[in-house]
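Here is an idea for our session: we take a single protein and study its fold together. Which protein we use is up to you, so please pick one and set it down. Once you have written the record down, we can walk along the chain together:
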Amino acid sequence: MTVPDFQSLMLPVLVVLGSRGELSSQEIRDGVASRLKLNDEDRASRSARGGVPVLANRCAWATIHMERAGLCQRVRRGVYRIAERGTALLAKKPSSINMRVLADYAEYRTWRESSAEQAPDPNATAADATASAPAETPELQMDAAYRQLRAALEEELLANLLRMSWQRFESLVVELLVRMGYGGSVEEAGRRLGKTGDDGLDGVISEDRLGFDVIYVQAKKWQPTNTVGRPEVQQFAGSLGGAHARKGVFITTSKFANTAIEYVQRFESERKIVLIDGRQLARHMADLGLGVTTEKTYDIARVDADFFAED
């Protein structure tokens, strides 16, 4: 199973805390993972952006919310125990614990009302806010928002690529590969070859300054509805052979047919050909800042517990 949202983890976290005395955050996570029968992949899963450990993040927020409601207590840094109120709640055998349940406790309502999570309506109470409270933790909400923004950015990049002239597109793919670390600078390492009689080779990149090893590039600015098939890739492989080259990159704004993918996999021992489709191309451009500008950045700070520790 996948890792449940942080509200769904509240009951398992409290049950684990109630089963023993003082527990570290790691012991809480291990106990919850065992109770929910999470596999190794689930336990190790991280968010797409920033690598936030999903299980640790959700268990931490479940613990924070229950601590604010007085169901558990922080003993010292990273160590918690169940409180009498938490034991009393477990004795009632609840089917679940969530923010709506926590809103029954005055301390929790006060915290919610004073936090940035309060409802847009200034007359709304914390109990009202929990009715529409998000199931995800703040960090992972930001991660989900980032993924949406990133997907929209990649779609827009691909749309702009399709409006480019084929000459500019060929130059761009050479610049992209150089930015990926092949050869050095554009002036030293990469150049566009595209012209009549180029034998299907649109660019070349020298992997070393003396040009002993080179990578040839084929660029196809095709509509997404078109598919690059095996014949086009096979022709590119033949052009590499004619240039006595063993390495090539075939980049397109569309996609590759399975037969094309299978072809390059079958002949990897003879020459290495990397296929980059439109989705991958837009992703690489966004990763490397090619054709994009950074509008905003957000830093997420955490309290440094060691700074406040006293001997």
The mean pLDDT is 82. The radius of gyration is 28 Å. The chain has two domains: 10-136, 157-288. Residues 29 and 56 are 7 Å apart (CA to CA).
